[in-house]
Amino acid sequence: MIQIAPSILAANYAALGEDVRKVGNADLLHVDIMDGHFVPNLSFGPDVTSAVNGVTEQFLDMHLMIEEPERWFETYALAGGDRLVFHAEAVADPVAAAKRCRELGVQSGIAIKPATAVEPYLDHLEHFDEVLVMSVEPGFGGQKFMPEVLGKVMRLRDAIREQGTSTVIGIDGGIAEATIAQAAEAGVDAFVAGSAVFGASNPAEAVERLRALAREAAGDQ
Ligand code: DX5
Ligand code: ZN
């Protein structure tokens, strides 16, 4: 199923609640957590997450671009996160980390940077509710989409079909009207979009346009 996930990294922080309400037609919200160490930028943390959770019923997909993410799992679960997406590069044992997420009563997700291979995780898909394929180097919004990561999406799609798991394939970075179709054709289910949604004059309409383009390219689902 096609899902559009606006990234609030691109929202207006001085009017965050209003911006969150503007995209009430989206399927989920993507919350980018950055610590200035795992990535060279800072965003927001548990208190902002909790405030966002207070103004929407939407599913919060927590993209944890932080070192030692396991130290923060419980905090973000309590703050209202519905899925904790940690980076493969930041944990020693991704399967153990995913099990910990589920023990906390939330979904598990693993994110992989553009240069990180997906193969080591293909035999463990049942542990991950989402695999988030980065299509830019994590750290900043508004970067150019890297189509070369779509090979990973196709390998993931084949493995998920073969194994029959319900793992969602997400893509994050540079998704816009010009790029979403190629990602949908490759097999992406959940499309993160920051600047393409909140940079638009009407964010809700931007969500609808992106969804329609993805559905068309995927042969409607
Ligand atoms: C980048 C973040 C993305 C970012 C995407 O490190 O993980 O979620 O918000 O922004 P756009 O859609 O503008 O590329
Ligand atoms: Zn993200």
Describe this structure in words.
The chain has 221 residues and is of the alpha/beta class. The chain has a single domain, classed as Aldolase class I (TIM Barrel), CATH 3.20.20.70. Helices cover 33% and strands 19% of the residues. The protein has eight helices and eight strands, in the order βαβαβαβαββαβαβαα. The protein has an eight-stranded parallel beta sheet with strand order 1-8-7-6-5-4-3-2. Helix 6 packs across helix 8. The model has no long low-confidence stretch (mean pLDDT 98). The site of D-xylitol-5-phosphate (DX5) has 22 residues, from strand 2, strand 8 and helix 7.
Summary, kept brief:
The longest helix has 16 residues, at 203-218. 33% of the residues lie in helices and 19% in strands. The termini are close together.
